[in-house]
Amino acid sequence: MSQKTKKRIPILTSNFATLVAGNGYYVDKTSFIHKMEGLNFPNLFLLRPRRFGKSLHLSMLEYYYGIQHRVRFEELFGEYYIGKPENITPLRNSYYILKFNFSGIKTDDVNEIFKHFTSEIRGAVDLFIKEYNVVSESDREEIYSSNDANTILRNFLFKIRGSDPGVKIYLLIDEYDHFTNELFAFNTELFKEIVSRNGWVRKFYEVIKQFMGEGIIDRFFATGVTPVTLDSMTSGFNVAQNITLDNKFHEMAGFTENELIDMIKATTYEEGRFDLDAVVADMRLWYNGSRFSPDAKDKLYNPQMVITFLSNFSNNFTYPREMADINVTSDYTKIGKILQFLPKDEFNAIIEDVFTNEEIQEGLTLQYNLERPYSKTDAVSLLFYNGLLTIEKAVFELVTYQIPNYVIKQLYWEFLRYLYERDNSFMYDNKEIGLLVQELAFDGKIDKLIKYAQKVMGTISFRDLENFRESNLKMIFMTIIMGTNAFYTTSELETHKGYLDLLIRKTELNPGGHEYLLELKYLKKADKKDYNEIRRKGIEQITNYRNSLTVTKLTKLHAYLILFSGKFEVEVFEVE
Question: d(Cα 319, Cα 307) in Å, to the nearest integer?
Fold first, then answer.
């Protein structure tokens, strides 16, 4: 493909027509129209994390099914799967589209939420009326005679039925649970109130259900992040199928690796300018890793992360200084919101498993019941639904979850650092950390790293020190070095000799050649009598890891055994 015919990287647009008109590259997801229509359920929910391409998919459906876009069909869909004559479905451009987008509803003032909700409903209804000109001016006045969102919607749908009984509406809802998820995180009582039998969210979906039954709303597709709101009002809205875990729809949002490669070739790649395989390998580490169905073969790339990277990379074919999208890594408080309702021991157990083992085994909550206590399984499941964990495998009801990629790992590290600062009245010094990272990268030394670890250890209370373990020591080292783009840090990496504590490898942004293997030991007072034996075994362990096939390909690898005794005593042994 010549430079003149290159497509544009699809930056910051979730409008399908705008993307196509601007020569933007669209990862073709139109084949899922067939799969959706092939189901026995015309009303569907799909849950995916934020920034995963859900809004663009809704927009594509809007242009495919909207009657007003019939004359633009070839222009919009001609080059995609669904635009080929043999693939077009009978329902093409046959619906009136009613679309709600709840992502902009503000939740900072709980007394204003319903007002914002009503404003969204009124605005969408008004757009529909102007687009299709299906009600009279007097009917409009009657529709808007109330300031209640659900009354407006009910009046509107009654008027549609009365003016033209043949009208068929395809109802699209983007981020159906955005504002309720926010409430669930900080005001559970209000959340329960608005989704309860007499709550206004429940009433909204009861209106939709009523007009589904009357045939006015013929199809329904809603996207969101978690099933909490859906489950909380199941008895009020039990007419939609949740396809979130269905393998047939696994790739409907998100990019497969083949789709990513095709996009790079169509938008960015110039032969001889960069090594495509190497770039994809790096992107795989940073942005790939999401699996939403236990049966899915391929893991998915996060679209926003990919597009942000490529838009920066395409300028001069060099990697951006920040490989992680700041919009993602700044959102680390979401982890705390999900875990905050757990008892402290369960909170800590999740943190330790995820940070030190980089995986956790739990069930998957398919239906949330607010009448029962919030459980560890519920919390881990919400981490999954929010894209903070992903399915590695499932055996019967037990799911093994992992952190999907390095960007999400950095988000966890930011959260862990926040916990240390909050609990120990300590602030990490970015200048000191920057200097120790430089020493690691260019000098092949860990002196500054050890001193900074001692500094962090010094902030821990003697009470907390009583329960201090090697896993806690490992987490301290991780909070220091894992926020940098100079190194990839892996915990509990499996080798044929066992599981090594920390492997620190240089990234493509790091011109230094040094890499590190760390084995960490923490000795309590009672362990000091066994010091020599612990040191001997530690040196034996790290020697074995040093010689394992996993790390022998690292040419400038420094291997260290680090023994901490109490808060301040430390000895370091380098293994050649």
Answer: 13
Do 365 and 335 belong together in one domain? yes
| Cα–Cα distance, 506 to 409 (Å, whole number) | 16
In the numeric block, which tokens belong to residue 363? Answer: 């069930």
- CB-neighbour burial class of residue 416 (10 A; exposed 0-12, middle 13-18, buried 19+): buried
Q: What is the pLDDT of residues 305-343, one digit of tens each?
A: 999 999 999 999 999 988 987 777 667 889 999 999 999
Number of domains in the chain: 3
Note the pLDDT of residue 11.
Answer: 82
Whole-angstrom Cα distance, residue 250 to residue 294? 10
- The DSSP secondary-structure symbol of 321 reads S
Indicate the pairing of strand 569-575 with strand 557-565: antiparallel
Query: Model-level pTM?
Result: 0.92
What are the distances in angstroms from CA 258 to CA 251, 262, 264, 538?
Answer: 12, 6, 10, 43
Contact between residue 392 and residue 363 where contact means Cβ atoms under 8 Å apart: no
Q: Which domain holds residue 154?
A: 15-244
In this predicted structure, what is the pLDDT of residue 396?
92
Residue 131 sits in the same domain as residue 277: no
Tokens standing for 307? 């597009």
**DSSP assignment string, 195-239:** HSTTSHHHHHHHHHHHHHHTTSEEEEEEEES-SHHHHHTGGG---
Nearest-angstrom CA–CA distance, 394 and 397: 7
Q: How confident is the model at residue 234 (pLDDT cuts 50, 70, 90)?
A: low
Cα dihedral sign, 19-20-25-30: positive
Q: Phi and psi at residue 272, in whole multiples of 5°?
A: 90, -15
pLDDT surpassing 50 at residue 2: no
Report the distance separating Cα 265 and Cα 244, nearest Å: 30
CATH number of 177's domain: 3.40.50
346 shares a domain with 494: no
Contact 120, 102 (CB under 8 A): yes
Last residue of a domain, one of 370, 405, 440: 405
How far apart CA 346 and CA 350 sit, in angstroms, is 6
On whether both 98 and 62 belong to a single domain, the answer is yes
pLDDT tens by residue, 403-451:
999 999 999 989 999 998 998 888 999 999 999 999 999 999 999 999 9
Look at residue 231 and tell me whether its pLDDT is greater than 80. Answer: no
